[in-house]
Design goal:
By secondary structure, the protein is an alpha/beta fold. It is about 35% helix and about 15% strand. The protein has a five-stranded mixed sheet with strand order 1-5-4-3-2, with helices on both faces. The protein starts with a strand and ends in a 7-residue tail after the last helix.
């Protein structure tokens, strides 16, 4: 199991962020209210896992294409996970469990990143593998969230905020070169 550096979590409860629009293209992640609900991990279905249904099908497809190309080019694996709300867990523990279960990044390089967004809880987190933590520090992750994601989230543009945040993450991660 790969270690993930605790990167940045931003609680958005003080922000005026609207709830995501209904009519989601993907069903929300459903986790039964059982004692083991905290350990439930959503299924990894690609680079974009929009269980909250906050992205349009076009945004999901474009982001999936972009992240796949980026991974082929750099070997860095950036994955987006949206869940409507957190399953009886803090965003820190949930994101870390998901990142470890999904084994993001290459084994010997630990170059994976998980962007988690829980719009109903108004929380987001960028979980960075230890191999990339030197290039995407907590302050860099905070800046990405605050400057690239939150302004669009406040305007109800979740897809645009996620796209802008991911683009910034890709720029930051490029400093870490991995030779296959």
């Amino acid at each position: 199991m790969r270690a993930f550096a605790l990167s940045l979590s931003l609680i958005l409860s003080g922000l005026c962020i609207p709830a995501p629009a209904s009519g989601a293209a993907q069903p929300p992640l459903s986790i039964a209210p059982t004692p083991s609900a905290e350990s439930a991990i959503p299924r990894l279905s690609g680079h974009v896992n929009d269980y909250a249904g906050i992205l349009t099908s076009q945004q999901r497809a474009a982001l999936e294409r972009r992240l796949s190309e980026y991974e082929r080019e750099t070997t860095h694996q950036i994955v987006v996970l949206t869940v409507s709300s957190l399953p009886n867990a803090s965003i820190e523990s949930f994101s870390l469990r998901v990142a470890r279960a999904w084994k993001l990044g290459r084994k010997d390089f630990d170059n994976g990143v998980l962007v988690t967004v829980a719009p109903r809880d108004r929380k987001m987190r960028i979980e960075v593998g230890e191999g990339l933590s030197r290039f995407v520090s907590d302050s860099a992750a905070a800046k990405i969230i605050e400057e690239s994601m939150v302004p669009d989230f406040r305007a109800g543009q979740f897809g645009k905020g996620i796209e802008r945040g991911v683009e910034r993450l890709m720029e930051e991660c490029r400093a870490y070169k991995v030779n296959p």
